[in-house]
Design goal:
The chain has 361 residues and is an alpha+beta fold. The protein folds into two domains: 7-59 and 86-185, no CATH class; 205-358, no CATH class. Helices cover 48% and strands 16% of the residues. The protein contains 14 helices and nine strands. The protein has helices spanning 26-29, 41-48, 57-60, 84-94, 100-103, 126-150, 193-200, 208-219, 226-240, 250-261, 265-286, 296-323, 328-337, 350-358; strands spanning 7-16, 35-40, 65-70, 78-83, 105-115, 156-164, 169-173, 339-341, 347-349. Strands 2-5-1-6-7 form a five-stranded antiparallel beta sheet.
Length: 361
């Protein structure tokens, strides 16, 4: 309960492209004093509609109403209503592919801060609230990056703002809306909790040589052109295995990616061939042979290759993080020593195998 001599401020961020499975993150983020909450759209409109420069809620009651269904875990779905104006605004602001309308709720990351007593009539310093909003933005940025590394799909935190209880006022932190997700990517995968928890841990240190790779991978989620995104993700893999002495060659990158991800000789050969095919596609893109004017079947094939490349890049980065090598030299040493079972269970050294297939670098 709020003490009359204290000022309570709630902080919010809209979670974009996620469903209720995302709430399983609460076990991890509660230790940082954050929570994932579901807010029905009708309540969201009543509480926060003027964030979107709309008139007061009382005036909106005279507008045409849009019927939606609120999904519930227990019992039947519940019918709710929002104004037509608010429906149109959310459609334009977050794109019509967002899950808000089909789920009937907005998912939000929230936290609360209680400030010391102020003298009578005094208002809390807006600058202090903005500073705490920026701290929340930093946390959600880190969480977003961790999620992108740990799981397939696009999840974003947008529209950060604070609500001061005693003044009934909202303070927004302006941040760009860049929706890129799709419905098939929304489910949160519980098994990746461990990596997310480690990446959020302030004591977890990402080695210097992986910082650029992780940053480059994160940037790929904001690239809309698919050809440019493909080239960017290939570059992420090359960064993993480049040194000051030489750039990573095609066969070196393909070999190390296959070594990291394969569980057997057969898988290594298959993955190595897949990686060589990705680099061949890179050459086609650079030559201008992969454009938006491709026939539908070719475009679909390219999209499948892009999805495979993104998942491969994510898994390679995760494997390298789990190895916890202090330098690239240590990483290369471990990979060159790695063996996997061959067809008859005998250990196979994969650098030698790769040389036999495509010649020395």
């Amino acid at each position: 309960m709020q003490n009359n001599n204290q000022t309570v401020v709630d902080f919010f961020a809209v979670v974009y492209e996620a469903n209720c499975s995302f709430q399983s993150l609460n076990r991890i983020i509660r230790k940082y004093n954050y929570e994932i909450d579901l807010i029905p759209l009708d309540l969201f409109e009543r509480s926060f509609r003027h964030l979107y420069n709309l008139e007061t809620f009382e005036e909106s009651l005279h507008q045409q109403q849009v019927s939606l269904w609120l999904k519930t875990d227990k019992g039947p779905d519940k019918e709710i209503f929002i104004s037509e104006e608010f429906y149109a605004t959310l459609s334009a602001y977050y794109s019509v592919t967002n899950p808000f309308f089909e789920q009937g709720y907005v998912m939000m990351c929230t936290t609360r801060k209680v400030f010391p007593a102020l003298r009578d009539g005094a208002k809390i310093d807006r600058g202090i609230v903005i500073q705490d909003l920026e701290k929340m933005k930093k946390f959600t940025d880190n969480l977003e990056s961790s999620l992108h590394l740990a799981r397939y799909g696009y999840v974003a935190f947008h529209s950060h703002f604070a609500r001061i209880h005693s003044e009934n006022s909202l303070i927004p932190l302006m941040d760009a809306i860049d929706p890129l997700g799709s419905e098939s990517q929304r489910n949160f995968i519980e098994k990746d909790n461990a990596l997310i928890e480690a990446l959020l841990n302030i004591d977890f240190r990402i080695t210097d040589y992986m910082q650029l790779t992780i940053k480059a991978f994160e940037e790929s989620f904001h690239i809309k052109n698919q050809q440019v995104k493909f080239l960017h993700l290939i570059n992420c893999l090359e960064i993993c295995f480049s040194t000051e002495l030489q750039d990573a060659s095609i066969t070196l990158t393909a070999r190390y990616c296959a070594i990291l991800l394969a569980a057997s000789k057969r898988e290594f050969i298959s993955l190595y061939a897949d990686m060589i095919q990705l680099f061949a596609l890179k050459k086609e893109i650079l030559a201008g042979n992969v454009t938006e004017k491709l026939p539908f079947d070719k475009k679909d094939e390219f999209c499948q290759q892009l999805v495979f490349l993104e998942e491969t890049t994510r898994n390679v980065i995760k494997k390298i993080l789990y190895l916890n090598c202090k330098s690239k030299e240590e990483l290369f040493y471990k990979l060159d020593l790695k063996t996997l079972p061959g067809e008859f269970g005998q250990p196979v050294s994969f650098p030698t195998l790769a040389h036999r297939f495509h010649g020395k670098d």
